[in-house]
């Protein structure tokens, strides 16, 4: 799991140890993500399955894509499809994805990169492995998180952010036991590059075997801890947590996690995707690729899509022909 790393974590700025009076967030629930397939057939874990939307707010949905080691000819993506009313945050840890959308956004995202797409009023997009990866096969692993938009921003113009892996804020835990990558929002005053409509923070943490970490966390935000790889514990009571499990935490000032002394050879450390945001607390009407506030708005989204008002698929140039 390369993502973005450093040779010596102790050279990085350090997150301050929370004060002794800070309250560690208790564990409200631990759920195990069921496995399935998405798009043209790539394997995913449905990270939020079975969790009440009110506990996730402002997040809606998350898929862990892979980890899968493709043989040549096997890599798969998604066909063109619509979105409206939310943002997609695609984080690639291993491998490469190519994104295009009907609003002109797009590009290639690879090890440690994040593609942040605000669907807003609506667009069409596609995510595919590059031809070189299809031909060679190889390791593929990533996440796609859906972030809700408040009603006042549901119909905002689409926007695309291309966040290179080298742009994330790299931090160390106080004792150097964890590498912390701040993708969006902030951690202990250190800001990540992602520009968000909804106030949120996203951190990819790699915790060394046997290390324990207490992260200061905005008390007005909720807190979710998802295990990408490895085994460890979460919360003040050290609740066991392993790959593919999500912990929903309660109120408090601190997120407390720890890595087991012994890890699997394929995942030598505990890797966590930590999320939190200020709840929107509005009704959610979601179906398929649309996340709105009412059933009427949801029906309008389908009608607009069918009428072609969410954009058109860009034409593909044909080799050997002039493009007019």
TrEMBL record:
The keyword Oxidoreductase does not apply. Binds 1 Fe cation per subunit. Residues 203-310 form the Pirin C-terminal domain. InterPro entries: Pirin (IPR012093), Pirin_C_dom (IPR008778), Pirin_N_dom (IPR003829), RmlC-like_jellyroll (IPR014710), RmlC_Cupin_sf (IPR011051). Its cofactor is Fe cation. Belongs to the pirin family. This is Short-chain dehydrogenase. It comes from Knoellia locipacati.
């Amino acid at each position: 799991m390369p993502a973005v790393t450093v040779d010596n974590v102790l050279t990085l700025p350090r997150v301050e140890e929370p004060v002794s009076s800070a309250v560690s967030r208790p564990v409200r629930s631990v759920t195990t993500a069921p496995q399935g397939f998405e798009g043209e057939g790539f394997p995913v874990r449905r990270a939020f399955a079975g969790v009440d939307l009110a506990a996730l707010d402002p997040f809606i949905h998350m898929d862990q894509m892979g980890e899968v080691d493709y043989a040549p000819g096997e890599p798969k993506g998604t066909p063109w499809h619509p979105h409206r009313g939310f943002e997609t945050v695609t984080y690639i840890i291993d491998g490469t994805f190519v994104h295009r959308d009907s609003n002109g956004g797009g590009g290639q995202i690879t090890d440690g990169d994040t593609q942040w797409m605000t669907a807003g009023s609506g667009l069409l997009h596609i995510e595919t492995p590059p031809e070189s990866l299809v031909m060679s096969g190889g390791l593929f692993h990533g996440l796609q998180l859906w972030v809700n938009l408040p009603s006042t921003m549901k119909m905002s113009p689409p926007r695309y952010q291309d966040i290179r892996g080298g742009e994330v804020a790299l931090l160390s835990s106080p004792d150097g036991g964890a590498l912390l990558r701040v993708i969006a929002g902030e951690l202990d005053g250190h800001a990540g590059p992602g520009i968000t409509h909804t106030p949120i923070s996203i951190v990819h943490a790699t915790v060394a075997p046997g290390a324990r970490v207490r992260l200061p966390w905005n008390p007005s935000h909720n807190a979710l801890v998802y295990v990408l790889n490895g085994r460890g514990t979460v919360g003040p009571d050290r609740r066991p947590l392993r790959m593919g499990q999500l912990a929903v935490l309660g109120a408090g000032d601190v997120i407390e996690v720890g890595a087991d002394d012994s890890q699997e050879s394929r995942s030598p450390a505990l890797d966590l995707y930590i999320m939190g945001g200020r709840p929107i607390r509005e009704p959610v009407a979601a179906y398929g690729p649309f996340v709105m506030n009412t059933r009427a708005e949801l029906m309008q989204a389908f009608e607009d899509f069918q009428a072609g008002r969410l954009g058109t698929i860009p034409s593909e140039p044909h080799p050997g022909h002039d493009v007019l």
